[in-house]
Design brief:
Mean pLDDT: 88
Shape: globular
CATH architecture: Alpha-Beta Complex
Oligomer: single chain
Order of helices and strands: EHEHEHEHEHEHHEH
Number of domains: 1
Structural class: alpha/beta
Distance between the termini: 29 Å
CATH superfamily: Spore Coat Polysaccharide Biosynthesis Protein SpsA, Chain A
CATH topology: Spore Coat Polysaccharide Biosynthesis Protein SpsA, Chain A
Strand content: 15-25%
Helix content: 25-40%
Length: about 220
């Protein structure tokens, strides 16, 4: 797949230290890089613009789900055919983008899973295992790692999985919608750098995610 056909969307909140490096690496593999500055209080916006990304800004912090949706909505309005979502904190390696792009030739959505490692905090390993089993039982989608945010989808698939959750629940909501819409999916392994073990999904987030999945199953039919 040609680089020009790939749009990368990166939600960012107070990531001035890492965002420029991520953008520069991502531009090697994506024709367009969109950063959503989610109410950052530092110089994330300036760093992203100087690194060559298109920057959209939330005046206040709305959450990862809201930021990613803003970026994907923008990309689709501009005609994006394929979108790759990745984090701004250097945990995801842009060099993996071509692997996602290759899978998008046959699949609607490409998930990734972090290889088993003791570097992953125990609470995250247990949470991923538990949530993955709930997802499989409720929606029939079997994934190794439901909370990894490095994933890709076609523009048409995005219209079917477009989520409502403004926070980390969006990663699970995306999966539930993919299951309900019977989208073709695949998962690929990636390496992940755990630079901040306290960043990301917390125990409270995990509990909310599981409750939301039951809610979506029982009361949110269709989409």
């Amino acid at each position: 797949m040609e680089k020009s056909n790939i749009w990368a969307v990166i939600p960012a909140y107070n990531e001035e230290k890492s965002i420029a490096g991520i953008i520069k690496k991502t531009r090697l593999y994506a024709g367009m890089v969109v950063v959503v500055n989610d109410g950052s209080k530092d110089k994330t916006k300036d760093a992203a613009e100087n690194a060559g990304a298109a920057v959209l800004t939330h005046v206040i912090n709305l959450g990862k789900g809201a930021a990613l949706k803003t970026g994907c909505d923008y990309a689709v309005r501009k005609g994006a055919k394929h979108i790759v979502a990745l984090d701004a904190d250097a945990q995801h390696n842009p060099e993996d983008i071509p692997r996602f792009a290759d899978k998008l030739k046959k699949y609607d959505i490409v998930f990734s899973y972090r290889k088993a490692s003791r570097k992953m905090p125990f609470v995250l390993r247990f949470g991923n295992w538990f949530i993955s089993n709930v997802v499989k039982a409720l929606y029939g989608i079997s994934l190794n790692d439901t909370q990894c945010g490095f994933r890709a989808f076609s523009g048409e698939a995005y219209k079917k999985i477009r989520w409502n959750a403004p926070d980390y629940s969006m990663e699970s909501e995306m999966i539930t919608r993919a299951g309900k819409q019977r989208l073709k999916y695949v998962q690929i392994p990636i390496e992940t750098i755990y630079s901040d073990k306290y960043k990301g999904t917390t125990v409270i987030d995990g509990m909310k995610i599981v409750l939301n999945m039951f809610w979506w199953k029982l009361f949110k039919n269709g989409k």
